[in-house]
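for the writeup, i need someone to sanity check this before i put it in the appendix. the sequnce is what the collaborator sent (i think, or maybe the updated version? ugh). structure was predicted straight from it, no edits. if anything looks off just tell me and ill rerun, i have time this weekend
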Amino acid sequence: MSQKYTGGFITKSPVAPTTSAASGIWTLDQQQQAQQAGNWPSPPIFIEDLFSTYLYTGTGATQTITNGINLSANGGMSWSKQRNGSGNHFIQDTVRGANFYLQSDSTSPQGGTSGVTFLTNGYSMSSGADMNILGNTNVNWTFRKQPKFFDIVTYTGTGSATTIAHNLGSVPGCIIVKRTDTATNWVVYHRSLNTTAGGLIALNLTNGELTDVNAFNSTVPTSTVFTVGSASSTNGSGGTFVAYLFAHDAGGFPVSGGGSTNGISCGSYTGNGSTTGPVINLGYEPQWLMIKNASGANEWVILDNMRGIVTDGVDPRLFPNNSDAENTGDFQCKVSATGFQPESISAIVNTSGNTYIYIAIRRGPMKTPTVGTSVFDPETSSASTGTAITTSFPIDLQISHYRPGVDNVWWMDRLRGANSPGVSASTAYLLSDNTNAESSTAGVTNSWDNTGFKIGSAFGGASYVYWNFRRAPGFFDEVCYTGTGSATTFTHNLGVVPELLIIKKRSSATNSNWVTNYYVSASQTADGYLNLTGALPTVAWSSSNLGSAPTSTNFSVGSYSVVNQSSGTFVAYLFATCAGVSKVGSYTGNGTTQTINCGFTGGARFVLIKRTDSTGDWYVWDSARGIVAGNDPHLSLNTTAAEVTTDDSVDTDNSGFIVNQDAATNINVTSATYIFLAIA
């Protein structure tokens, strides 16, 4: 089988050392030879290739967790914890062998027969596996070995100071060591502790920073080795040990246009004892946080975005040092496009004057999507409450609309607080047919996990359409922010200039329209309201209420209270044109029929259209309800009206979609102007 290289950052000519071919096509063996000789680049590695948080329910039968992480070929660690009840943490790795487990909440030596098998795209569990008990809800965190991210080392103790080689390729930010042959504490080196004075901390204890000059020999690690002294817990003579090494701001993750960025950080901050905690700037939005009060006796805590790191909401948390069930009773932290911020006075994350250490991992995906099905999924259902609906990706934004009758247009998203499995908290929602402030209920969709959602009691048995979106570079991003009352710039992670920007005040219904901006250039932009039918006049950006023009890294808001009321809370949804995946654009009506070429190859599965020179609804068509050569059901984002099925306003076309002039929608009136968002 032959394969042609199509990715990565080529720094040398891809010529195999022993073979040449005018076609530039090489066998896999030839590619490996070229790579070893330095003539063939490795494909770029993204955070989604190396780390996964996966939520699942035990089946009591053989079960495969497909998280896309190849541990069988590359090596790594699997860390699992029951959520809905008390149960030990289970840690397996490829270096010690999948059948051997350790428990971070215990001093016990490693045990055997874990029932786990590592695969090329995840792992499997046997029917008797501890983390596969029927009905238990669980979380798994998978870490793949990769330079500048994570490494695993095993060694035999010597009883005297010695160095241990590693392949992290950078200076470790954190090292977690466990003796595997006898009962000892888990010993943690962290770059923010006083290592030269013997500073360390124990993963299985609540203690703050401890002192043992013999644990790491009071020596800071290097990019090739770390040092252990004579302590029994890190280097007891004849003992067997495993060390898990985490990088710190080492780069290694590709960014658009070249260069690299960080995927993991090990740092510290000082608490201020306020619900407006210190701002920790990572340079990226984290998806996973492990935090410990190094100054006092408090729990370690793990937060992740699959269970929920919610802006201004409750964060489900687990404690590495004990077997307790997941706790959902308190706010902990919120994340931004550039880092995180404690929003609690809890001693676990924010006692005034205390030092906190952390490990943070960047949110994915980092890859720009190439197919629409990887980031958008329309679903229709009238199934009963509790029915699971499967999607091909974890949902970040879901818009729901009742089809046969009058009802609101519901917007739920992960960042504001989607209900994940095992969490009893309500889901936050907004309604695009009105100006209401954000509210929450347990009745909408819930149990958002890696493969879909479940229908809530308010939707059960009723016919709804669910438009599901995933955040991804170049396609869609979301930012929650707090208003300042004066011109302010906020960072986003879209990676390109947003072309359709939707902002909604969450904290109040006063002056709270859904502000929408269609951006082409600083000289051509259209402003309006998603919840209203009014025209969107085309103006120069200087006339906009949104401040200066957006860029590939930020957007701005002026002093207008609808988008920037002082101390008000807001959410911004940002969409862009992504080749072959989405298209934000405009057209002028011709009064009959015309094809809107979006650069697709299989047609549009979602079409949103708004007339800009006059009144008109924000109409939506989708492939789940039908985009065909005939009548097509449509709904509107700005109204509670039932679905209309009696007009033929759009038709299919492989390049995008076709608009027809029909008086029911008026989406192709002669000389009228329109904007649209289409997704393949």
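The chain is about 5% helix and 35% strand. The domain at 476-575 is CATH 2.60.40 (Immunoglobulin-like).
thx in advance!!
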